[in-house]
Write a structure and sequence with these properties.
Helix content: 55-70%
CATH superfamily of the largest domain: ABC transporter type 1, transmembrane domain
Strand order of the largest sheet: 6-7-8-3-9-10
Strand content: 5-15%
Number of domains: 2
Largest sheet: 6 strands, mixed
Distance between the termini: 66 Å
Bound molecules: adenosine-5'-triphosphate
Structural class: alpha/beta
CATH architecture of the largest domain: Up-down Bundle
Number of helices: 21
Number of strands: 10
Length: about 600
């Protein structure tokens, strides 16, 4: 419940006076509904149905103003008032429901944006800990459940107010019978409380089923090529059938819980009405006309009791979604690395790195609970505008070192300085000046032009082609039927791996970075295109710092400095020639191995 209250407080802060106006409107509506019931009294009186009761103080105090009118005008006046009341109530209800929807949608947008921006502001370790599908699930499934819960609870409050008003009215008419109804109501709440607990645990189950569903869908469609080429469709279909069966059971179970509790209320309503009539006539001796009024009031009140119960159950069912959303929000806030709104103000777009990057005795562990280090005691200096290559076997720590150098992760020990400034003080600024091309180049489902302009929105057409020429991509782009206007498929799948790499490389160079990082960025290229890119890198050499991770050692022949990593430590460092000549070193071992591979091919 605590988690839901946090969101209701947020709504309170967000909507302010609007929330109270809407609630006042809803209350006014309940009062109008109550008045329309009270109007039945003069109506019954005029129709001579109140009999001896016309002398009662309650009836006469309501009927008195009417007696001022001529007797022939009394019935039309009451009927007209009744119609006016009904129209006012319906108009008010329509107006309030419109205002509520507007407020609801604005608030949903607010919590959606708030959550999305909080995640964008979170640091990289936050994303390392999270499954992407869980984040998608929260944004697509849990968030609407939360907003539904918030407004269901507001509705619940209003129903409570309405119920209280109607109870007050009933007490005024007959406190004995009202007390009896309330006791019956409380008894029913006690009996049906187990349905609220059941709804809560079904809500828990639904949250975890939806997480599994979303994770499964993301994985299966990402790995669809593997699934199809290895003919594992059947296992996946079986998994899917089982999971969806559980989801179906969960929803059916929840609706069964709700229908049982509603059934209890309906049966109880019938039994109680019979009991009231019997007790009222046999023991309390209430006049039939008063009894009729009370039956009218309770026949309106009882469905409200039933809807209060349904409201509780709905809220109990969405509480796990509130907890999941709030936990994620708190976690992303704790992992915040910058303020999105402040970012563009703080960044100096002309900033360049002049001296270089220095690593002083850095060590890094992905999981501090274990004694395994991804990197250990790294001392390193990368001169500004030089070309540095990082080599090593798979798992040696090359990508981890890059993540540290650009401040995506922080070392547990040691420090990294950019032009003498600790990276944690200038990471946002520094990363703006870095172009990073990863092992798995990512393209958005947009046109080639939009993809290229992602990092440089103002780049001219000429600059785009220049960048494409740099990455040896201009010829294949020219051949595309719509050239730069070609929409590239989901993650750019309509392009080959090598073509994708060249487009991402063009995008990286368009930003005119101060530091260009190529993490296996040319691994999918044929040797002809790789030579083109090497020549292009030679041309820009000296104008920016270039850091290259490469398995193909032929590509780093011209590097100023080669760093050899093994099991998280630097085992060799120097120029290509120096390292190649050190025959007992790891580098010449790697070199020999690759020469052998070339001969075999
Ligand atoms: N997110 C992670 N969580 C836990 N351990 C990780 C994570 N990423 C990498 N590691 C571990 O850290 C070590 C270094 O990994 P890293 O990816 O930096 O190596 P690499 O040299 O770039 O390898 P490759 O050439 O295969 O990409 C490896 O032992 C790897 O298992």
């Amino acid at each position: 419940m605590r988690h839901l209250l946090v969101y209701i407080q947020k709504l309170h802060r967000f909507a302010g006076i609007q929330l109270y106006l809407n609630m006042c409107g809803m209350m006014l509506n309940s009062v109008l509904a109550g008045i329309s019931v009270v109007l039945l009294i003069p109506l019954l009186n005029l129709l001579n149905l109140t009999g001896t009761l016309s002398n009662s103080s309650v009836i006469s105090s309501i009927a008195k103003p009417l007696q001022q009118l001529p007797s022939s005008a009394q019935l039309p006046a009451v009927l007209a008032l009744y119609v006016v009341l009904l129209i006012t109530q319906a108009t008010l209800e329509r107006f309030i429901s419109q205002r509520n929807i507007q407020m609801e949608q604005r608030f949903i947008r607010h919590i959606r944006t708030d959550m999305y921006e909080a995640m964008l502001e979170a640091n990289w370790p936050f994303f390392l800990r999270k499954r992407k599908s869980d984040l998608t699930n929260i944004m697509t499934t849990e968030l609407p459940r939360v907003s539904y819960g918030i407004f269901t609870s507001l509705q619940l409050v209003m129903n409570l107010v309405y119920t209280v008003v109607q109870i007050g009215l009933a007490i005024w008419l007959s406190y004995q019978l009202t007390a009896l109804v309330l006791i019956c109501g409380l008894l029913l709440v006690f009996v049906t409380r187990k349905f609220v607990f059941a709804s809560r645990s079904l809500g828990d189950e639904m949250t975890s089923l939806m997480q599994t569903y979303m994770a499964g869908m993301t994985e299966h469609f990402n790995g669809i090529k593997d699934i199809k080429s290895n003919r594992t469709e059947q296992q996946h279909a079986l998994w899917f059938r089982n999971l969806t069966k559980q989801m179906e059971r969960n929803v059916v179970h929840f609706s069964r819980v709700q229908s049982i509790s509603q059934y209890y209320y309906k049966v109880a309503a019938g039994v109680f009405i019979v009991l009231f009539v019997y007790i009222a006539t046999a023991f309390v001796h209430v006049q039939p006309s008063m009894l009729l009024l009370i039956v009218v009031i309770f026949s309106r009140l009882w469905p409200k009791f039933a809807s209060l119960q349904a409201g509780w159950e709905n809220i109990a069912q969405i509480l796990p979604a509130c907890k999941a959303l709030l936990d994620l929000h708190t976690e992303s806030e704790q992992a915040r690395e910058f303020n999105l709104k402040q970012l563009s103000v703080d960044i100096d777009s002309k900033w360049r790195m002049w001296h270089g990057i220095e690593c002083r005795d850095i060590s890094y562990q992905y999981d501090t609970r274990f004694a395994t280090y991804a990197l250990r005691h790294i001392h390193l200096h990368i001169q500004a505008n030089s070309m540095v290559a990082i080599v090593g076997k798979s798992g040696a720590g090359k990508s981890t070192l890059i993540d540290l150098l650009i401040g995506l992760i922080e070392p547990q020990q040691g420090e990294i300085l950019i032009d003498g400034v600790p990276i944690q003080h200038c990471a946002a600024q520094f990363r703006r000046m870095v172009s990073y091309v990863s092992q798995d180049p990512f393209l958005f489902h947009l046109t080639l032009r939009e993809n290229l302009r992602m990092g440089a929105p103002d780049a001219s057409e000429e600059k785009l082609w220049e960048a494409l020429r740099f990455s040896a991509a201009h010829e294949f782009v020219k051949k595309l039927p719509q050239g730069l206007d070609t929409v590239i498929g989901d993650r750019g799948v309509r392009l080959s791996g090598g073509e994708r790499q060249r487009i991402v490389l063009a995008r990286a160079i368009l930003r005119n970075p101060s530091v260009l990082i190529l993490d296996e960025a040319t691994s999918a290229l044929d040797s002809e295109n790789e030579v083109h890119i090497q020549q292009a890198l030679e041309r820009i050499r000296g104008t920016m710092t270039i850091i290259v991770i490469a398995h193909r050692l032929s590509t780093i022949r011209n590097a100023d400095q080669v760093i050899v990593l093994d099991q998280g430590t630097i085992v060799q460092q120097g120029s290509y020639q120096q390292l190649a000549q050190a025959s007992d070193g790891l580098f010449s071992h790697l070199l020999k191995h690759q020469e052998l591979e070339v001969v075999h091919h």
